[in-house]
Amino acid sequence: MTFGSKLKALRQEYELTQSQLAKRLDTSKSNISKYESDSIEPNMKTLVLISEYFNVSIDYLLGTTSTPSPCTTASSLSSREMELLKYF
Predict the structure, then answer these.
(1) Which pLDDT does position 67 carry in this prediction?
(2) How far are the Cα atoms of 8, 24, 76, 82 from residue 18, in angstroms, in the given order?
(3) Sequential DSSP letters for 32-83
(4) Percent of the chain topping pLDDT 70
């Protein structure tokens, strides 16, 4: 399953239109459409927002795991993980 198909499935599961999701993620409907069709990929900030909004891991969104585990918030990260995030 691609990133785009996962995003679309999550959006539909939450009964959101592309416009509604775009508003919640502070992006355009056009970008949501392009993400869902795998024409473009979101930047890191948007990927984190998607992960947090749908409460799934970035690993799930990127396809490195098939389990949509809850996202990890900054408050639950170790100091080492926080240091690594500064580089991204």
Answers:
(1) 80
(2) 9, 10, 30, 32
(3) HHHHHTTSS---HHHHHHHHHHHT--HHHHHTS-SS-PPPPPGGGS-HHHHH
(4) 81
Q: Which residues contact 71 (CB under 8 A, 6 or more apart)?
A: 51, 52, 54, 55, 56, 57, 58
Locate 28 and state its tokens. 């355009």
Question: Is 61 in contact with 3 (CB distance < 8 Å)?
Answer: yes
Q: What residue has token string 């990929």?
A: 41
**Contact criterion met (CB below 8 Å) for 86 and 44:** no
Residue type, 24: R
